């Protein structure tokens, strides 16, 4: 099963767990197998929630939910950080 790292804001829905395991052959399928509280906050209308990016095995993926995963894959969700010059 893929190892899914849970963002700090969502750990209340995983009993404080920093990561969980879930099955699936794509990132989208893995998210689909997470509990509904986590899944519903990561997805909006079948798409990744705005302001989130997906890293698979340490690399940001341009394929997003379509990225294939293997049983030993690690998935991280990264929040966008905005900013600019003063």
How would you portray this structure in words?
The protein has 86 residues and is of the alpha+beta class. It has a single domain, classed as Beta-grasp domain (Ubiquitin-like (UB roll), Roll). The chain is built from two helices and seven strands, in the order ββααβββββ. It has a five-stranded mixed sheet. The longest helix is centred in the middle third of the chain and has 7 residues, at 36-42. It is globular and about 40 Å long. The model has no long low-confidence stretch (mean pLDDT 92).
Order of helices and strands: EEHHEEEEE
CATH structural fold name? Ubiquitin-like (UB roll)
Summarize the main sheet: 5 strands, mixed
How far is the N terminus from the C terminus?
45 Å
The percent range for helix content is: 10-25%
Which structural class matches the secondary elements? Answer: alpha+beta
Question: On the 0-100 scale, what is the average pLDDT?
Answer: 92
What's the CATH first level?
A: Alpha Beta
The CATH architecture would be Roll
How many domain modules? 1
pLDDT < 50 runs, ≥5 residues? none
The radius of gyration computed from the alpha-carbon positions, rounded to a whole number of angstroms, is 13 Å
Q: Taking strands numbered 1, 2, ... along the chain, how are they ordered across the largest sheet?
A: 2-1-7-5-6
Portion in beta strands: 25-35%
- The CATH homologous superfamily is called Beta-grasp domain
């Amino acid at each position: 099963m893929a190892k899914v790292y849970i963002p700090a804001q969502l750990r209340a829905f995983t009993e404080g767990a920093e990561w969980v395991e879930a099955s699936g052959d794509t990132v989208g399928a893995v998210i689909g197998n997470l509990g509904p509280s986590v899944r519903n906050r990561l997805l909006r209308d079948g798409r990744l929630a705005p302001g989130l990016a997906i890293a698979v095995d340490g690399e940001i993926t341009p394929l997003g939910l379509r990225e294939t995963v293997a049983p030993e894959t690690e998935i991280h969700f990264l929040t966008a950080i905005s900013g600019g010059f003063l």
